[in-house]
Specification:
Keywords: Transcription, Transcription regulation. It contains 10 helices and 8 strands. By secondary structure, the chain is α+β, with helices and mostly antiparallel strands.
């Protein structure tokens, strides 16, 4: 059974800007850009979170965990009433994981190890280190399950993606965006593929899914979320959400209710 705790305002601060342990955070809570000498795992046992770096933004609903290697500047934003768990990974263990930020699926064993590590005081010497070793083993064998939205560098592409970020429901075609930022449709299409390694349509879909996760986590209905994020009808939204996240919006919300008990 998932563990539950009473809400608190912020996680315990271990000093030096490194937050460790667990706490309930309110919807919209943010941690400003910072970095650590250790690696960091952040898991929302309930709720959802977004981790942003210069390489883009990663979103993790409650069945995924974010990983940030040492010395990567990053920020966090939390969606819904979030049961956040933060785990610092010593540098000697970081080499077991990927050398760039990422998101991984959370297996039942990984979830229980994360909850135990962040819930319970260490009763025997070395117990937390052994739990951390289990977590690292689980992550080392896990495939990335990334909801990654990469950042642009070309000025024209940045301008186009900024327009979409400001209004994810914006219905503009690629040609219309091109006219707004002074680039041809063909140029923008090429930039999306060469800089961001995905099509314009795929990038906008991931952006909208990021916003959809935040809306669903905050209690918005599936239909309301579909409209707010730019889908013409709930069915197309449900199909897109299921393809990207791996479950329907309704099942995702049901899981949030179970974890939040």
């Amino acid at each position: 059974m998932p563990r539950t705790r009473q809400p608190s305002s912020t996680p315990a601060d271990a000093g030096g800007g490194i937050l460790q342990g667990g706490a309930w955070l309110p919807h919209g809570f943010q941690l400003a850009p910072h970095s650590h000498v250790q690696g960091q795992l952040v898991y929302a046992a309930a709720g959802a979170l977004a981790t942003a770096t210069e390489r883009g933004t990663w979103v993790a609903p409650a069945d995924r965990i974010t990983w940030t290697p040492p010395r990567f500047a990053h920020s966090h934003r939390f969606y819904g009433q979030t049961d956040v768990r933060l785990v610092s990974v010593p540098p000697d263990l970081c080499a077991e994981l990927i050398d760039h930020p990422g998101v991984f699926a959370v297996s039942p064993l990984l979830r229980e190890a994360l909850l135990a590590l962040t819930d319970e005081p260490e009763r025997r010497a070395g117990a937390h280190r052994r739990l951390l070793a289990v977590i690292i083993d689980e992550l080392a064998d896990a495939a990335e399950a990334s909801l990654h939205l990469p950042e642009a560098s070309d000025d024209r592409l940045c301008a186009a993606t900024d327009l979409l970020r400001a209004d994810p429901a914006r219905p503009s075609t690629l040609a219309e965006l091109g006219r707004a930022v002074g680039a041809s449709e063909r140029t923008l299409s090429r930039l999306f593929r060469t800089e961001l390694n995905m099509s314009f349509h795929r990038w906008r879909t991931i952006l909208r899914i990021h916003h959809a996760l935040a809306h669903l986590t905050d209690g918005m209905t599936v239909t309301e979320t579909a409209v707010a994020c730019g889908w013409s009808n709930p069915s197309t939204f449900i199909d897109a959400f299921t393809e990207v996240v791996g479950q329907t919006p309704g099942r995702y919300q049901a899981g949030l209710r179970i974890r939040g008990r």
